[in-house]
Amino acid sequence: MDRLHRRKNLRTGNSAPPSAPHLAPGRRLVLGGIAATLAGLPPARPTLAQTTLAQPSLPQPALVQARPVRIGMITSLSGPFTALGESMRAGMQLLLAQSGHRLAGRPVEFLVEDDLARSEEGARKARKLIGQDRVDLLCGVISSGVALALRDVVTEARTPTFLLGSANDLARGAASPFIVRPTKTNWMLGTTAARWAHEKLSGARVLTVGSDYAAGREYIGDFAATYQQLGGRLGRQLWTPLGSADFGPLLTTIAAERPEAVYGFFAGSDAVRFLRQWKEYRLAGRVPLFGAGAFFDQEDVLPAVGDAALGALGTFHQSPTAPASAAFNQAYMATGKPLPGEFSTTGYVCGQVIRATLERADGDLADWAKACGALFSAPVETAFGTMPFDPRNGQAILDIHVNEVRRGEDGRMVNTVLHTYEKLRDPGPDA
Amino acid sequence: MGYAIVQTLNALSFSALLLLTGLGLSVVLSLMNFVNLAHGGFYLLGSYVAVLWLGSGAPWWLAFPAAFLAAGLAGAVLERFPFRRFYARPHLMQVLLTYGLSVIMADLMRWGFGAQILTPELPAALQGVVFLFDMPFPLYRLFLIGAGVALGLLLWLLLDRTLWGAVLRAAVTDRGIVETLGIDTRHLFAAVLVLSAGLGGLSGALGAGMLAAYPGLDEEVLILALVTVVVGGLGSFGGTVAGALVVGFALTFSKVWFPEFANVVAFSAMAGFLLLRPNGLIAPPLRQI
């Protein structure tokens, strides 16, 4: 709208609208709209295609670059993922603050919307950010369900989006030319956990236990598939509904099975309850426990479970002891936060990738295909390490760490890197 | 053998937790005919108070009275305004009011206690474990079972065996007659609501070791408490006890036998059961006027 306004003024020969400098941006927008309507220009915001066409006719690119870049974030600020959503927002805000709220020379306007962890709400908020707030790009999302719902909305609206859910399908069937994925897929963690188990447990019979929802099914399913491929033996596979109040019955069943090792996946409050009760039922220390992803999240889970997870192993693309994360750890903790976990780091990394994208495109995302090409041409240095992208699906290629939960110097539990599987690339469209 | 005993104890400890949360809800529902959907908020408040108390180093057993008092105080404030004006209103109005309040309480608690998942530092005395035929069972859960039985018994004595309880039951049946006897029923109802909120807080303190404390737990607990009260039968104390046992055993043994379909099995069983006995397990003769 602002751009239309200026274009009209350029055409009519005015150097600047006389009253504009004294008006608040909101009113300027309104006035611009009226002016545009009167001039017979389309009053609606330009679609991406229109903007692209109009671009070469703009005589002063400097003006375009001074225009603020609007970043919309959709995350969960209420509902089951509240703490994760707040961490994600904090990570992004930290990066923006470090960049002086300017990316590639353009001031940044950062808008955050709450998806309540519900896909229809996420899609509604995305339409609002795209249609009403006219963001230049979108980012965010905790829940993969919301991510899959957003996929269609942003692809249809042709809005550049940095999408953070981790369902495998986001890098496969649901990949989109408008979506960049600066985070892991569930497959990366499940398959590396199986490789580690095969190397270190030498074919032990592994019992699996997991939350019965999309992510749990993928973490456990990819582990089981790879582990069996490598010749490992699986014991019973136990599933429990998302949001189980009491794990006592399940843990008693596990104790009676006497497995050689247990591989599991839970997240959030389920992970906290499972691990605490894992210790209460005296399984901690007796049966080796390993898992994937958010099961042992540094920020969300470990502070709440005391030493119940001590010695557990998890595969994760995030670790506070990974060298690439050191600078971010310090900056994040300087804002009064604890040692960072997955989602604060992911929010920060998402910001780093957005910054790199804007810088490589000279602050202008109008030609998204070109901006994407520039982003994919060379890896980005992030708090997850050096991050190349797979041009087929916009999916990041990541180093996956095997973390052991160890007691740190100050007595706190810390995810400590034991081993790193380098450059994990999701099979993507080949899967 | 040990396996069966421990699974039964698992079911009993979960039933005890359900009983504790259900009691507070059923007291106001059965005695005052007031639907209080903010009960989950009282529970969560009690959990937070207990987590902070147990982390502070003060004598651990005082955490439970502290949680009772904190939630009871919140109940007393809310009783003065606006609950009191809604006792005589239809259920739908009460549902709207208390649901709205529960959302406000949830937001206030998220603001005050943060969105992180908090867990209590259990005292050493409760961290132990007993081995039954070589199967471990946590002491903390035995403590839960004991607390459930003790509190249930205490409440039953109070309501069924004391003069105060008799007056209360009379006031529910016919408030007008009781007032003509010179008894201020407003105070009576206020006391019941404070008791109910306090019980919610106390059960939150006791249950924190099993369920932890985090935003959103209030709703999960409220649903469990509602299911317990409805299955047991509205308006009877024995019903809540029976409901807690049925729901606790159903949810536990569905996890033992069909872990994958635990919720489906347990809740279909309860739905089928309600079709057979729409008034719940133990339904008192209808005395609503």
Automatic annotation (TrEMBL), chain A:
Belongs to the leucine-binding protein family. Residues 1-25 are annotated as: Disordered. This is ABC transporter substrate-binding protein. Keywords: Amino-acid transport, Signal, Transport. It holds the Pfam family Peripla_BP_6. Residues 1-10 have a biased composition (Basic residues). It comes from the Bacteria. The keyword S-adenosyl-L-methionine does not apply. It comes from Teichococcus rhizosphaerae. The keyword Metal-binding does not apply.
UniProtKB/TrEMBL annotation, chain B:
Keywords: Amino-acid transport, Cell membrane, Membrane, Transmembrane, Transmembrane helix, Transport. It comes from the Bacteria. Signal peptide: none annotated. GO terms for cellular component: plasma membrane. The chain crosses the membrane at residues 12-32, 37-54, 60-78, 99-119, 139-159, 188-215, 221-249, 256-276. It holds the Pfam family BPD_transp_2. It is a multi-pass membrane protein. The keyword Lipid biosynthesis does not apply. GO terms for molecular function: transmembrane transporter activity. The keyword Transport applies. InterPro entries: ABC_transp_permease, BCAA_transport_permease. It is found in: Cell membrane. GO terms for biological process: amino acid transport. Belongs to the binding-protein-dependent transport system permease family. LivHM subfamily. This is Branched-chain amino acid ABC transporter permease.
